[in-house]
Design brief:
Elements lengths: L1 E2 L17 E2 L2 E10 H5 L11 E6 L2 E9 L13 E9 H4 L12
Antiparallel strand pairs: 1-2, 3-6, 4-5, 5-6
Organism: Collichthys lucidus
Keywords: Disulfide bond, Sushi
Protein name: Sushi domain-containing protein
Length: 105
């Protein structure tokens, strides 16, 4: 995962903006998470949701989400549970416990 701007710029002081770095991500399995935690809204669309940032649920990157099927249909808008891939930078993964994992289907 690229961290930082992919381009560098010459600044007025003659120095360059910082270089981006490549952060190796380690997969940590699948987790169940509310769509509200992924995007702040509830519109029953897990597929368009993802997260990258400070560690949340043991993951610094959450993506490839799918709506968890509950077995019964709801006729009103709500936050649905999503099943997503979880990854953590390999450097951080040694110091954080494994996320709650769901079996891959």
């Amino acid at each position: 995962m690229l961290v930082g701007s992919p381009t560098r710029t010459c600044q007025p002081d003659g120095l360059w903006t910082p270089r981006p770095t490549c952060l190796r991500m380690c997969p940590r399995g699948r987790i169940e998470i509310s769509e509200r935690e992924l995007g702040g809204t509830c519109n029953s669309t897990c597929a368009q949701k993802s997260y990258a940032g400070p560690i949340q649920h043991g993951c610094s990157r959450i993506d490839n989400c799918k709506k968890k099927e509950s077995g019964w249909k709801r006729f009103f808008s709500q936050c649905v549970p999503c099943i997503c891939d979880c990854a953590l930078s390999c450097r951080e993964s040694v110091s954080h416990p494994v996320a709650r994992q769901k079996p891959r289907t």
